[in-house]
Queue: 4 jobs
Job 1
Amino acid sequence: MFRVMSLICIPPLLSVLPAKAQEDDVRWITGTLGYVQRIALPPKARATVVAEGRFGAMLGETTLNPDGKQVPLPFEMAVPPGLAGEVSAVIRVHGEPRWVLRGLAFETGREPVDLGELTLEPVTPIAFATELVCGDVSVMVGILGEEMVLRAEGRDIPLVQVEAASGARYEGVKDRETTVWNKGDATTIRLEGRDLPECREVLPAGEMPYRARGNEPGWYVDLGPKTAEIVGDYGEITREAPRPVVQVVPGAYDFDMPDAGAHLRIEERLCHDDMSGMPYPDTAILTLDGRDLRGCGGDPSDLLIDGVWQVTALGDAELIEPERLSLNFLNPGRVAGSSGCNRLIGGFTLTGEGLQFGAMGSTMMACHEPLMEQERRMLDALEQVTRFDVTADGALLLIGGEGGGVLLEARQP
């Protein structure tokens, strides 16, 4: 059945800055909170701003008591330096959320961050909500008022439970082509006659799976929802421990597993596997029985699936209207983009050894011959790609061909 969770919540404080870091080694985030509606804040209003990092870790938190003041409300919050994160904010009235902002990203670094004026949106809370991801569609199922609703693509669709051979099945009150069918751990959704891909429940950030690994001697650590598996010396050492609560330190996340003789540190620094050359988003250090073993952590696809990449170079030829050339990696295993003439869609495969693109489909628009030639070169380049890299300044390099050179370069605006 659906797991009960709250729509609007501030995650628990998983760790705090050490005293020294609080005094001497902090990064300040500042801004103001506001909203569009012309509604005065009553005396019982309270505002909370939090910064959340990886693994569900709380990087910082501040609570504002307006005490008769009105928006915009200024805030400042201390976070550890050297870590990226997301800022969320909520204004509550009589304890109930009224305005909210979620997931405003800030980059890693040590310099102060001024977010300016943040505009919060009015809240229509769903109670007992379960958040699901169905392919690239995020949905939520829960109670709104006295009705079960499906919140998807900006709409709330009322549901009514109907008879089912197994599990719990719901149909749209006004649209029987919208259904939600929950059978054990599996949920299938049909949205206005369109079958969504298999849905999976969104785990809390502190339970999301994560792997770190290294070579010579081969080792890995798998963080699961509840347990951590530690394997060292090519499998000669195998241990298990409860998944530890993440600890935040300047520039890193620490996972201490003393009963397993292990300690894992994750730093948000680009890492390359020293055998395959595959880039990873994190640098990992496993201390196992007193030995420091270095390696990489995270999923290489996270380096790709992070917004639109604007093509900046395609071989040696000068680009025509480069602002129209783009790639957008979509999870899972899909890629879209533009060749400057036609829209592209296809698949990509990422393995431990490299990156390959499948056959690319496109629209059939005819353009001037120079643009058509550029499109052919882009499709030919994608077909030859065998691996990718990301440079220190953030450029994406698609590499392959006979000489193993850079076939395409792209950057995010």
Job 2
Amino acid sequence: MNDRTPEQPADLVARLRATFRSGRTKPLAWRTSQLRRLRELLTTHGAELAEALHADLGKSSTEAFRTEIDFTVREIDHTLDHLEEWLRPESAPVPAHLGADATAWTRFDPLGVVLVIAPWNYPVQLLLTPMLGALAAGNTVVVKPSELAPATSAAVARLLPRYLDTDAVAVVEGAVPETTSLLAERFDHIFYTGNGAVGRIVMRAAAEHLTPVALELGGKSPAFVDRDADLSVVADRLARGKFLNAGQTCVAPDYVLTDPETARALEPELARAVEALFGADPQRSGEYGRIVNERHFDRLSSLLDSGRTVVGGTGDRATKYLAPTVLADVDPKAPVMQEEIFGPILPIVTVAGLDEAVDFINDRDKPLALYVFTESDTTRERFAGETSSGGLGFGLPLAHLTVSDLPFGGVGESGMGSYHGRYSIETFSHRKAVLEKPLG
């Protein structure tokens, strides 16, 4: 390859497909070696990646390691510990009419060439975690980092070829034209994380080749606060979950649902929780991030008039700082309630009680996550049985994402397919049915 001339998408995919067809990626030893090399990259160059994340999103080093670098290392370690077990064939019972000598089982076959398209908000974790799952399943992979996180994209593009098999893993940088060119090629699976508008574009492109897709989208993830909850604890956990990465998290609590009395009592607790996290002036805090660009800053700023400001409500476009903001008395028809916020604004919407809260959620698109703060088993059971969401968290937002033995994914408008741990192997493999009957 000529380093000065980028490889054309058709040539790139053909080269990786040739590697796959050679059988090189299928042995367990190859798969585990790639994961160990990726782990070495992250542990050796963690500080460099953290600097890139700070340049792109203002992330502190602590947050960069906790939510991106160390997160991915833990996923690698979990996969290395269990991969051989996950890949073992699973026997299946055989009906009597086939005879006692017939046997049946399933096995995981890798799919081939996988395309991973990553977003900008967690540009290390959300690029490398699906990639490592695809490699663990025995595939070759093309990864497309987000152009909206240019420092991280450049770092990943520079480092991955130094550590991973370049005949099996390729990085394509760029923006819409490069992504469009990639989507014109035939892949064996496409894994996209982002918004629903682009998700539809990905699905249309994939349909041309009947390529399966996993779409990790977002949506307005509600948080219901029951009147029996400890509001001090609730406020602390809501603030941590909402304002992580300046609210630019797909599973962040998007809005709070509660009754009017609880809402009034929750307001000062949220103000206290914000100050406890980031101090009296969050703009000076080294632990509070920034909005990714001016376009998103302007979009978010236009939502600040959607309710009464409890805390925050200010910003600085020049530095892309938007204060952690809580809005009260928010009408369900207000602008802030019409789309996923994806920023540090937390609206409080009041409902009469549990029944109205369940109806409110069910009347809208199925969210990526739903959080419930209550001491009532009955309330928990009602949310579990009467609502639909990608994930459900009782008492703690975001945490389900960190459990490798849980599938992470959406439903309906919030996405399709899931990954993490064994579920990544299932996503990036074909479970093949096998039956054997002796010729005798």
Job 3
Amino acid sequence: MSYLFQLIEHYGLLLVFANVLLEQLGAPLPAYPTLIITGAMASRGEYSVPVLLLTAVVAALIADYVWYRLGRRYGRRVLSLLCRISLSPDSCVRQTETSYTRYGAPSLVIAKFIPGFASVASALAGAIGTRTTAFLIFDGLGAALWAGLGIFLGTLFSDGIDELLNVLQQLGEWGLLLIGGGFLIFIARKWWQRKRFISSLRMARITVHELDQLFKEGLEPTVVDVRSSMAQQDGRIPGARTVFSKDIGTFELDAAVDSEIIVYCACPNEASAAQVAKQLMARGYHKVRPLAGGIDAWVAAGYSVERN
């Protein structure tokens, strides 16, 4: 355990840089504990607060710019990748799109304070063509606020943090096991939340080929698009109606309760579509199914889309 503290004392800035970089790239390695500890050490004069803050901001900007460039190059495909590798619920893309559509690049200032928002917002900024200068300015401000708060908390509670570190050091290997156990609990809790979320979305799906067959047979099911307005600019299934999940309680669906209703989105596990489908079923509609693979599967199968 003493060796670990020696590493923190000698390589604290490098540790902060690596931790922030990995967390902002999407690894489940929370950087705030590191920022708080090094902030407490800075209050004792072991580090320069401006240098510590600059280190964290540069690391965050590098990670965010990577996602920004990936979004610029691969478009919306990288957003699905983010939700697949993230331990956050799969509705993160839709929620981020809604916020970013409303506030634009300034939303990056608070992005790091919202779980599952930061990386998705950076990729989304690139995907929709946000100017690089605007991205770097607002993202840099957000990174400074986020890292600065962690460092400030470390300096504010430095006495209590010193006592905690001393206790851990006295525990020796047991202290190291305690830290490792806390990290594993954090990962397990995130994984369990995601597992429960996915399990809650289990219901019958319809494939894009089955939907196309319904159209060919003239059955004309009611198709509902629950993506954001920004996502729908790339096109939607012909005849699809638009409804946002936040409006589902007041949305008037002109369809019989026993008619076929297909709901689709563009997120892993059809998360948004399944959530809306469950809400429609709660309102009395009996034959509601999410579209397996969403709009991406529809386009990949070669079926046409309509644009405004």
Job 4
Amino acid sequence: MLAVLLLVSCMPKKQDPIVTPWGEVLDSVEVSEDFDLHEIQHSGELILATVSGPQTYYDYHGRSLGTQYLLVQRLADKIGVGIRVEVCRDSLELADKLSEGQVDIVAWPTPGHLEVTKDKPLLLDEFTAWYKPELIEEARKEETALLTTQRVKRHVFSPMLDKKGGVISHYDRLFMTYSQPIRWDWRLMAAQCYQESTFDPKAVSFAGAKGLMQIMPGTADQLGLPRSQMYDPEQNIAAAAKYLGQLEGKFSDIRDRNERTNFVLASYNGGVHHIRDAMALAKRDGRNPHRWRDVEEYVLKLAQPKYYNDPLVKYGYMRGTETVDYVSKIRQRHQGYMGVKTPHLGFHPSKPRKAEKRKNKYDI
């Protein structure tokens, strides 16, 4: 069952308990002057408080997920508003936000009850008419679909366009050009591009990441890449190189360049904050926070409540298996590309050679 608490506000007064079809109200709650459905619609947002976790709420490549979040999202869509999420440390903080009237809905991490105040009759009526128990399973199925084969829509091309000719992709010269300012091996950037999009300039993910290097719209804005040009190969690669350079700066405390590259790749996939959380846990446990072999273990552990609820962790739950696999596959593919030399002058990405016919045969 979805454990949700419906709202409160700022000037408290006592109300009698209410029993709803979804569970027994355990106690009365404190409420204040009306801020009901119409006011929520006028403000344009439903404020949800919850804790980080796979069943509640987490960020995945810029997309908000979690079964309870997706369920509340459906309610928000129905009443025509967005959701603002307040991530709390624990249930005590959730209760405080509820009692102080700072939020509209509280999604608890454990199965529970639904508490409703009489000052929200319109919101309660809307919820009552909308809610069906099967919505929970539908939200779970939606999340599963998003996290599996439908993550990125793309054509799958060979990881080597012309092995005998030493050509990795149609975009080799672009990788060579834009990897130079950040002092990356162009073949490493090519290996990363294949992992992101399999060299498909029209690739798009469920979260909205676009193009060869799968850049999110918000990141594009920050990098100065017009959204109308996100599918343009050169603009996309140039922006990605700029972003990689920024990530290099965020890990300047890692002196070893080879190690730093692992952390940059991991952050490109999983986010800087999650990687820093893993580094903090590794350091606490006496491991080397600047060595990826030590830190990747904690990236994986951030999927466990013991770790993502640890006071050291600021950004909560993480699907770390994908990030660890991401770094490993790029590094392996880069090793395979290391024998490729600089493309000859006659090869240009604007005049691509014919791609190999074999598709869907490669581990991506």
